[in-house]
Amino acid sequence: MQSLTLHLHALRPEYAKLGFGLDRAENKAQQRIDELKAKVKDKY
Asked: Looking at the whole model, is its pTM more than 0.85?
């Protein structure tokens, strides 16, 4: 059981990086959505 615990603990930085990447992607997507909404507002 202890080796599993150590193994999962060792993976934590990878999961943290993954979470960070997802947050960044979400922020980029939201930024793009806002830009497109602004464009549409300008046109109509």
From this structure: no
